[in-house]
Amino acid sequence: MSNAVQLLAEIRQSSERRPFEVLKLAEPLLGSGGGLGTGADAWLAYEQVFVAAIDDGEMELARAVLGRLHKRFGAGSQRVKRLAGMFNEAAGHAAEAKRMYGEMLAADETNVLASKRLIAMLKAQGQLGEATAQLVAYLDTHGNDFEAWLELSALYLRQQLYPQAAFCVEEAILQQPANHYFHLCYAEINYTMGALDVALKEFLRVVELSTDNVRGFYGVRLTADRILEAKRRPKKEQPAWADAAPQPATLERLSELATERLLSVYGAAGAAPKRAAEAWLQQS
């Protein structure tokens, strides 16, 4: 195996795209009439080069590689159809790409790659409602795909549908309860909705799981201060969750501890970052 083919395989195994490097390695091999390896690995390399060509806007190279794959695997290959759909997307033929993905899903509604390409295309076109519907349908079949739940949450957030976005993050947390980023997303969504009691619990969970998390500590401070303000209002003006929230002394201590931890984190980076953090915290 040539060095170039070996390097292509290493890039492929790392799951990185790196289109410039891929094309730089592959083009001399293709230009000399040589191949990209032997057996199944060769066709994986051709697919890798096709994707790199699409990424880099080398449409003629992408067309040539797609033709070679089509000749080898035939019109019935679902994988080749997906690549053809990607080519049409890149060439600006969105309607044709959508038709191809639709045909693939009609033949097999569990086709993960076709579903994800269709959703990505709809998002890129700003068709958020249709992208959301497609992603909901996808999750009906692939409910264990936590990344898809996060993607659906992001789509709902773009449409300002906060309760739906929160539900999606809950599903991701059920699958990975120790992931501090999921708890952070959930805390911030609840903060935005005004569910400050839930937000505070989740921000505290974030800093429990990630002990130097600046966003988590700032969330604790900001949320504790807002809950404290709410609890100081006349009883009839307090939100429904105020009674179940921590007592003022606890909230004050949480705010103080979060401030101390923030200054400690920034102080570790030097005197200037600490001074900037102090000024920022005094204003917030």
TrEMBL record:
Task performed by this protein: Part of the endoplasmic reticulum membrane protein complex (EMC) that enables the energy-independent insertion into endoplasmic reticulum membranes of newly synthesized membrane proteins.
EMC2 TPR-like domain location: 81-190
Main location: endoplasmic reticulum
Location relative to the cell: Endoplasmic reticulum membrane
Sequence similarity: Belongs to the EMC2 family.
Membrane topology: Peripheral membrane protein
InterPro entries: EMC2-like, TPR-like_helical_dom_sf, TPR_EMC2
Annotated protein name in UniProt: ER membrane protein complex subunit 2
Subunit structure comment from the entry: Component of the ER membrane protein complex (EMC).
GO cellular component term, pick one: EMC complex
Top-level taxon of origin: Eukaryota
Listed SUPFAM superfamilies: TPR-like
Keywords: Endoplasmic reticulum, Membrane, Repeat, TPR repeat
Keyword Membrane annotated: yes
